[in-house]
Amino acid sequence: MRDYIRWAVSRFHQEQLFFGHGTDNAWDEARQLVLGALHLPFAIADSYLDCRLEDDEHAMLRDLLRQRIEQRVPTAYLLGEAWFCNLPFIVDERVLVPRSPIAELIDQHFAPWLADEPARILDLCTGSGCIGIACAYEFPEAEVVLADLSFDALEVANQNIERHELGERVYTVQGDGFAELPGQRFDLIVSNPPYVDAEDFADMPAEYQHEPEMGLACGEDGLDLVRRMLAEAADHLNERGVLIVEVGNSQVHVEALYPEVDFTWLEFERGGHGVFLLPAKLCREHQALFKQRLNG
């Protein structure tokens, strides 16, 4: 195993792979791929790295490393699994690879932003379901709705609900934004929607081409869906509810479009940016403005 990891690191550097789907360097990427493929923990004792491999394991590793290097397939897709909030999730090319900085907020119980324990949580644009399912672990009494436009994504989310045995209080809803949630209100709405603007999408590394485009790109400024979410959020938040949305590099577009709105831009110790928070009160106060600017 040690030889495969060393060889992979060299080749990853030589081929200038991009790391951004769970790791940020060649060593961690190689270790994750080799050990993950062999169903071994990332933190395995160093002595195990000298264990000999079976012939079929050699063949499997060579094939996976070839796909990672030649086809630029993200490691999570090659393994069929990604970790988020220290929880394993099934992933494939129907959903984005989990990597949102919102994980840090979940780990912190969304402190100090939530006034009370949320009874109902909405993970809008859920993809694999990782954010909502992680929230279900953090708030064991809450009902959690995982909503997405993509049937394919929700198939993966349902697999993850089953994997984590949360079917009694976590369920999926297929629809465009809030369209299939009429009259429903939540204490926490959290979303990692598509937000990549046209310029950034055109410049993304090859690894991102394996992810579903509808989970990444969303119009010229990346805010086609975010504008609609802001216009409708007040109708779906309880009185003391909170809206949290990741917009990444499109933060500049949000600030330019709504200079009157006092967004709280959250900071992260573990890296990440472009996540705003709006309490229900501000969603209501600015709803007319949000609706007015629906078309940019």
Poorly predicted runs are none
Q: End-to-end span in angstroms?
A: 53 Å
Q: Could you name the CATH topology of the largest domain?
A: Rossmann fold
Cα-atom radius of gyration: 20 Å
Reading side by side through the largest sheet, how are the strands ordered?
A: 5-4-3-6-7-9-8
Tell me the β content. Answer: 15-25%
CATH architecture of the largest domain: 3-Layer(aba) Sandwich
Number of strands: 9
CATH homologous superfamily identity of the largest domain:
Vaccinia Virus protein VP39
**Residue-averaged pLDDT:** 94
SSE map:
Elements: H1 2-14, H2 26-37, H3 55-70, H4 75-79, E1 81-84, E2 87-90, H5 102-107, E3 120-124, H6 130-138, E4 143-148, H7 151-163, E5 170-174, E6 186-191, H8 198-202, H9 224-232, E7 237-246, H10 251-257, E8 264-265, E9 275-279, H11 280-285, H12 287-292
Parallel strand pairs: 3-4, 3-6, 4-5, 6-7
Antiparallel strand pairs: 1-2, 7-9, 8-9
Helix pairs in contact: 1-2
What are its keywords?
2 domains, single chain, alpha/beta, 296 residues, Rossmann fold, 16% strand, seven-stranded mixed beta sheet
Describe this structure in words.
The chain folds into two domains: 2-79, Helicase, Ruva Protein, domain 3, CATH 1.10.8; 93-292, Vaccinia Virus protein VP39 (Rossmann fold, 3-Layer(aba) Sandwich), CATH 3.40.50.150. 36% of the residues lie in helices and 16% in strands. It has helices at 2-14, 26-37, 55-70, 75-79, 102-107, 130-138, 151-163, 198-202, 224-232, 251-257, 280-285, 287-292; strands at residues 81-84, 87-90, 120-124, 143-148, 170-174, 186-191, 237-246, 264-265, 275-279. A seven-stranded mixed beta sheet has the order 5-4-3-6-7-9-8. Strands 1-2 form a two-stranded antiparallel ribbon. Helix 7 links the parallel strand 4 (143-148) and strand 5 (170-174). Helix 1 (2-14) packs across helix 2 (26-37). It starts with a helix and ends with a helix. The model has no long low-confidence stretch (mean pLDDT 94).
